[in-house]
Amino acid sequence: MNLLARIQRPLGFMTLLWLGVGLWMVFQAPLDFQQGNSVRILYAHVTSAKMSLFCYILLTITSITYLIKKSETADIISEATVPVGAAFTAVTLASGSIWGKPMWGTWWAWDARLTSMLVLLIIYMGLMALRSSLDEPLKAARATAILAIIGAVDLPIIHYSVVWWRTLHQPASFGGSSGNPSIGGDLLPPLLVMAIAFIFLGAYLVVVKAQEIAALRKLEALDIERMEQDD
Amino acid sequence: MLKAAYRIAWKDMVGDLRRRSSLSSMLFFSIAVLVVFQAAFEPDRQAAVKLLPGLVWATMLFTSLMGLGRVFQAEEENGAFEGLLLASVPRGIIFLGKWMGNLLLTLLVQAMILPLTMILFNVDAWHVIHHIFGVLVLGILGLTGLGVLLAAMTQAARSRETLLALLLLPLVAPLLIAGVQATAGVMEVDGQPWPWIKLLLIFDTVYLALAPWGFSWLVEE
Less CB within 10 Å around the terminal CB: N or C of chain A? Predict the structure, then answer.
């Protein structure tokens, strides 16, 4: 926990720095000749989509670590990662919708990626709901860790089943969204800088949240100790 | 070893048949869901044929949620879960027993509901009803496997039935997609159910391998 407190401030500065440079580059980048200004949304959209998956990978690692090593730090980081991942997923869906309305002419389509992202968001919500509705901290930690691992196994199955469903059943609604659209050379540097900025942002948020959770747990332990002394 | 699992499954089944708690409530709930669908969509004969796969699977999913919510209820009410865990068999076997009990119950309900659905919606697919049921069984295997694990996870939680639905529904999305497509595939003359049946089998294998393991981690002292 000491380590977290020490890296919090540097992480915050790095986030600000990279985000500042990244945003400046985003607004310097040339406009897409078809998409106009709305292409700029994608710099935040693509990066938060990557972060939402990245958070889930981190969550899986800390969950496995918790189950094997029973280390409380791993559990605290798991608990801190879930809301951050959920936030990135929500940002991905919202920014995608805002971009989709002028580009596709619709807020939402049941395309493979959109559907998997929505399911990911519900899984994040489920993880939060499960932890908050179990009173015993040890049980809550174990149950959420197992659920996170089940989710990690399920997510690829969900993704591929939706891809198959959308391709076998009806042609993909939007050609560009299911393939891998190539990105022009001028657009790549700002995207990379934004990606680094978002990694710092994610790490910073997890660190802040983890310290909050650690402090809350300490407080609760002190509370129990005091009540025992009163008796 | 497996005998212990059969015993647990048998105890759950007999207990439930005597009290008729889960079985009858699941049956009547299914019928209520069918009435809701009929009122909501009012399909004519042709529409009903197209609607049937989704209808069968949606009804099955909602009904099984009801049964899953009660898997550990008897143990919870009487504080008998710790006693069950004290049994000198691996935890995976206890899971297997609870799973088989719920599986049998769900299969029994579905065996009654499927013909009823076809009668109520006037769908003439009697010549493939065994295929439809077969696909349904494949889905129920994995669904109950994952469902019993999640039921164990949420049994001590506040508002556990809502929580169970919230956790289970997104995770079984692939099962629902594959099941509906496979059912539609066996109902059409030149349908192609095989890719979807394979997906169902993958799902079943993954969850039936994962769930006993998850259960033994969950109830560890």
Answer: C
Residues in A touching B170 (Cβ below 8 Å):
119, 122-123, 126, 158
Closest Cα to residue B156, out of A138, A148, A133, A123?
A133
In A29-88, the residues whose Cβ lies within 8 Å of chain B are 67
Query: Which of A217, A154, A203, A210 lies closest to A19 in space, CA to CA?
Result: A203
| Ramachandran quadrant class, B79 (left: phi over 0; alpha: psi -120 to 50; beta: rest) | left
Q: Would you state the structure tokens that stand for residue A52, as one six-digit string?
A: 């939402």
DSSP letters spanning B114-166: HHHHHHHTT---GGGHHHHHHHHHHHHHHHHHHHHHHHHHHTTSTTHHHHHHH
List pLDDT tens digits, range B140-171: 999 999 999 999 999 888 888 899 999 999 99
Contact present, A151 and A85 (Cβ < 8 Å): no
Residue B172 vs residues A122, B76, B87, B179: alpha-carbon distances, Å = 12, 26, 31, 10
**Would you say the ipTM is above 0.90?**
no
B178 chain-A contacts, CB cut-off 8 A: 161
pTM for the complete prediction?
Answer: 0.89
A139-150, pLDDT tens digit by residue? 899 999 999 999
Collapse the DSSP code of A29 into the 3-class scheme (helix H, G, I; strand E, B; otherwise coil) and give the result: coil
**CA quadruple B208, B210, B212, B215: dihedral positive or negative?**
negative
B79-134 pLDDT, tens digit per residue, is 788 888 888 888 888 999 999 999 999 999 999 999 999 998 888 888 889 999 99
Confidence of residue B2 (pLDDT cuts 50, 70, 90): confident
Residue A135 contacts B, CB cutoff 8 Å? yes
CA distance B207 to chain A (A): 9
- Token pair, residue A122, equals 């519900």
Answer yes or no: do B210 and A125 touch at CB < 8 A.
no
In chain A, where the domains are located: 2-230
Q: Which amino acid is at A156?
A: P
- Give ∠ CA A128-B143-B1 in degrees, rounded to 5: 105
Tell whether A126 is within 8 A of chain B (Cβ): yes
d(CA A149, CA B215): 13
